[in-house]
Amino acid sequence: MGQNNSIISYIKKEKITDCLHWLNENSEAGAEAPLQLIIDSKETSLRGSGFKLNDHRSSYLDRHEIVKDFDVLHFITSLIFDIDPDLLTSLATGWMKFNRGLEYLEDFKESFESAYLGNGKMRYGNYESKIIWLKDQEVFVFQFVAVTTDMSIAMEKSPAVKKWMIDFSRNADAILTHLDQDYNGRRILFYRGKEIDVTICEGNDEEPFGLPRSFLDDYLKLALTYDRNK
Asked: Its domain of life (predicted)?
């Protein structure tokens, strides 16, 4: 059974425009036009592909449609990371699985050249992503799900992925950001303006060390509400 790690971040509604602006600058969706959104009378946009509203089995949205309300917005995107060995290893491993022997090298070279964006940056993955609007809490939940086990392993190890999560959180003034490591627990990397690194495992009733008392209240309120809505 494969592993599907995911980046999850909780953003206050008043910060959604700043959040989407930063995300658009640090994700990649080819030449397709962004989807136009209106949230609280503010116009904004989201880069990506395969946009669907609410049910992931629904029809794709028309690119010219303006979305004014939703419960869940599904989309596909690649994220832009600093190049690091863990991401390159993941990229190479994927090609080796389908191209045995030395003949894979030319294909990998082509794949890397396609992913490399210059200035030490690379486009990585096709993340199955969604934005959940928890309207009763005035919070948006962003989720970026790895589609392969190799991607999941790289996300756990990569300093570039951790940096991306912290930068995203700071620019969006996130309430809470964590890496859901599937059966390895939830790795909390950001909480209310502070960078941290604490893993919470399911079934562990001990209070997490190194987190403020308010954390458990927020965690239970946000994460468990998200679990019911995902």
From this structure: Bacteria
The CA-to-CA distance between both ends of the chain, in Å, stands at 21
Residue 222 falls inside a structural domain: yes
Instruction: Tell me how far apart the alpha carbons of residues 8 and 161 are, in angstroms, rounded to a whole number.
Output: 12
Tally of domains within the chain: 1
Q: What is the pLDDT of residues 75-100, one digit of tens each?
A: 999 999 999 999 988 877 655 555 55
Model confidence at 202: pLDDT above 90? no
How far apart are the C-alpha atoms of 10 and 17, rounded to whole Å?
14
Domain contains 44? yes
Residue 99 domain-assigned (yes or no): no
Q: Which two tokens stand for residue 44?
A: 């904004």
pLDDT tops 60 at residue 21: yes
C-alpha to C-alpha distances, 81 to 49, 73, 159, 179, 217, nearest whole angstrom: 19, 23, 10, 16, 32
Q: Running DSSP on this structure, what letter comes out for residue 217?
A: H
Per-residue three-class SS string for 77-131: EEEEEECCHHHHHHHHHHHHHHCCHHHHHHHHHHHHHHHEEECCEEEEEEEEEEE
116 occurs within a structural domain: no
Expressed as residue numbers, the domain containing 54 is 6-83+121-229
Mean pLDDT is highest, among 25-29, 95-99, 206-210, for 25-29
